[in-house]
Amino acid sequence: MYDNLKIITYPDPRLKQPSVPVSDFNENLRQLVTRMFELMRQAKGVGLAAPQVAQNIRLFVMNATGQPEDDRVYVNPILSEADGDEEAEEGCLSIPGLSVNVIRSKHLRMQAHDLQGNPIDQSASGYLARIWQHEYDHLNGTLLTDRMGPVAKLANRRLLRELEEKYAAEHPTPSPRKPTKKR
Ligand SMILES: [Zn+2]
Fold it and tell me: How far is the CA of 141 from the centre of ligand 1 (A)?
């Protein structure tokens, strides 16, 4: 049922919507996650959040190494105990071509549920913590474009404009109806 799912891209307004918690850990959810891993691998990404495939629920998948045993699913994640700051380069499957430096917390605690609804309680640093924060941002409708400073915005103005024009061409707004003359 998720065969037609694809990764949506900036400036699709669905990427800006906050997502709602998952309540049913059912077969649908498992199928969605299977498809999300597929799309993430095809796109050679390390993480993919449900809103990036137009499903506005609080769930993301990730794999930081590319090894199948490192597939991770986080449902209804909560990040806490943020400690330290670190700046590093990030990209986003929903903003193809963009690469910007983002300051993230260095250490974090993650509480969430796995695909079966079992509680997860983990801590991570560095790269893993960065992926958590990037994907968590997606669940709140926050994109890299919201994390960019003025210099990065200026440097990537052209790329973003191109993406906006491409999106507009693929999603034409209906032209306003001409007023009909009264007779
Ligand atoms: Zn992203």
Answer: 10
Q: What is the pTM of this model?
A: 0.92
49 with 139: CB under 8 angstroms?
yes
Q: What is the pLDDT of residues 140-170, one digit of tens each?
A: 999 999 999 888 999 999 999 999 999 999 9
Distance 179 CA to ligand 1 centre (A): 43
The CATH number of domain 13-170, selected from 3.90.1710.10, 3.90.45.10, 3.40.50.1110, 3.40.50.620: 3.90.45.10
The residues that are catalytic are 135
Torsion angle, CA of 164/39/146/134, rounded to 10 degrees? -170
Question: Cα(177) to centroid of ligand 1, in Å?
Answer: 37
Identify the CA nearest to 163 among candidates 103, 97, 84: 97
Task: Decide: 106 and 129 in contact? Cβ < 8 Å.
Answer: yes
